[in-house]
Amino acid sequence: MDHLELAKALSDTYHVICPDSIGCGLSSWVQDKTNDTGLQFYAEMAKSLLSQLSVSSCHWIGVSKGGGLGMMLADHRSGLNVRKLILNDVGPTLDDWVQGAVAKGVAKTPRFESYLAFEDRLRGSLQKRGLNLSDAKWRQLAQAWARRTDDGGVTFHHDPALAEQFSHHKQDFDLWDHFENIQIPTLLIKGQPSIVSDEDTARMQSSGPKCTVHDRTGGHISFMDSPEEHAIIKNFLGA
C-alpha cells in the first residue's frame, strides 16, 4: 500500500513487482532471527523471486531497507541484471544514532485500544518527520500499518524481530563496497532534510556509478506519490 500510487503510475509502461518483505505486510514473519534479518538473505530471496517470474532484467526502486538491497543487487558482481537503480533517501551508510532509533522503534510494538488511537499516534509521529497527508490517506495508512492483537487491541503490523538486523548484520549499514561496484545509471532522490549526509552524497556523486541527485521536499519518509516524483522517476527510467 505504501507505494501504490507510484506502482499505478508506472504500470502503464512497466511490469511492476511490489513484494512484501519478510516480517511486513502479508509476508511470513522471521523464522531465524540471526539469518533471516540480513540483506544477504533478502538478496537471495529477491533473486529467487525474479527467477520464478522469468524476469531476466529489471529496474530497481529502493526505499529504506529496499535501497540497501538495491545497492547489493545492482553491484555488477551480484549476478542479477539490474539496468537502473533509484534510491529514495537511502545511502550506503546509516549513522549509529539513526540505527539505534530505528532498532528501538521496530522492536517496540505498543498496544492501542482502537484504530483511532493508533492513527492519532501514527499521524503525530510521522508529521514530526515531515510527512503530510490528507485525512483519508492517514486513515488508509493506519489501516495498512495496523493489526489486531490477541486481546483485541491494535498495534503495528510488522515483526519486532526485524530489529535483530541492527545487532546481527552491522555490515548492512556500510555498503560502500557494493555501491562502488555499481556500473549502471543511479538516481538518489534526497529528502530535505535527509538521513543521507552531505559527505555521503558527494562521495556517491564522485564514485561508483556517479549517481544523479534530485532534492525533494519533505523529510526521509516519502511514499513517492506526488506528480513531481512520478515525473522524475519516469524520466530517469525512460532516458
TrEMBL record:
Coiled-coil intervals, chain numbering: none
Keywords of this entry: Hydrolase
Domain AB hydrolase-1: 5-227
Record-level Gene Ontology MF annotations: hydrolase activity
InterPro entries the UniProt entry points to: AB_hydrolase_1, AB_hydrolase_fold, Carboxylesterase_BioH
Keyword Signal: no
PANTHER family: HYDROLASE ALPHA/BETA FOLD FAMILY, PEROXISOMAL MEMBRANE PROTEIN LPX1
Protein name: Hydrolase
